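Risk register update: the risk of archive-format incompatibility is retired. Evidence:
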Amino acid sequence: MRLTRLIQHWLQSDPGRPAGRMVRFFALQVNLWRQCMRRLKALNVMTMSAALSFRTIFAFIPLIVLVFLVIKAAGVLEDSKQGLRQVLQQAGLSQIALRVDEGQAGAPQTLPATAPTTGEGLNLAEKIESLVSQVEGKLNFASLGPIGMVLMVWTALTLLITVERSLNRIFEAPRERTMAMRILVYWSMITLVPMVLIAAGFVGDRAIQKLADVPYLNMVAVALSIVTNLAAGLLMIACVYRFMPNTPVSFRSALIGASVMVPLWLLARWGFGLYVTQVVGKGSLYGALGLLPLFLLWLSFCWYIFLLGAAVAHTSMNLRQMIAEESSENISLGPAELLAAAIVVARHYLGGKGATSVESLATALGLPNHLAQRLASKLEEINVVLPSSGGECEGYMPARPLDDISVGGVLDQGSWMESGRLHASVSPEVSLSLAEVLKLRRQAVGQMTLKDLLRSTPGLPADGMDAS
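Archived output:
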């Protein structure tokens, strides 16, 4: 804390210097990631990613089948097998592969007839592609029937519902969407996201094919493919962060979160591929079943990185508020703060400015909004202020004439805001001592009202004071 204050003092002494701007950027990054990690810990994101991985296991195949049935029915994609291969490759599933050798420890005693023989490889993407092709060849909208269609759609949507609820927790959405809005958002996700992935892969492959034989341009084709995939991923994830939570999210913050999530995910995909080839590929403890734990591990990594990007987006949008809330954890509200809030509301009203908003009250008192709201609620409870929803500004106004509001009464109520639990637990002797202190303070204040206090304070117009 002392180091942070020294840095802030140094920045304020000469904020225009280049070094100051660099240090300010560094301090911003430190605060951003510190608040982001605090929020991830508070939300227990590991549990959220585990829940999403569990849902993915059950909804993955139905969701893929539903997506490609919809795309084929719309006539957008002719070769669904090639499109599915591109999606699985973009998702990093094609790198999850094993080799099963004869006599390998942990290998099952009996395998299906379709299982690979000695020395052959097991590839997760190929298995998924084969399974989806088999299911897709047997299913269509006519053969499924209404009950089968409802069950498949419900199974696929459970994953999207879990994703939305997780993002709602991270972005602090006040409520969930209605069913009609969910259908609209989910339908867009089911159709647009695979199309973006397929389009990005198609553009990259075409660029490599066209420029591969041209001298000095093959590297340009590879770079163009990488940039295209990166831009498509950034746009897709930013749209998910922007539209999936049921709360307003700025596109700038969503893009910041996507800028963290996508490169980190690409790095994780590269590292996981090395792990599979260099470590797991040399011998699998689970034998032919080794694809399953690898799949679960990769799902957990993917969902954790996805939620991390969402937390970065939320933190970048609410960084100042989160820092203020962290600082307010050590703030204790008492009589002085409650009386100060009453004075701010009264001065604002007498100055002809009408009701005092919570934001104005927080600014005047130098407190976060939630603490200012707490003070206003306490004043409303003791009938010092009342909420005003009419006019141009919603806020609080004096509930009674100022000469009817006792300063001593406000101070007495403020004494119980933070110390009420203390009064109930201390010994009778200490309670008597505290009561004596309150009595002496009440005698010192006497019959002073809020109007008397404001009259002795400069800065108010005389006509406003007389009108009160």
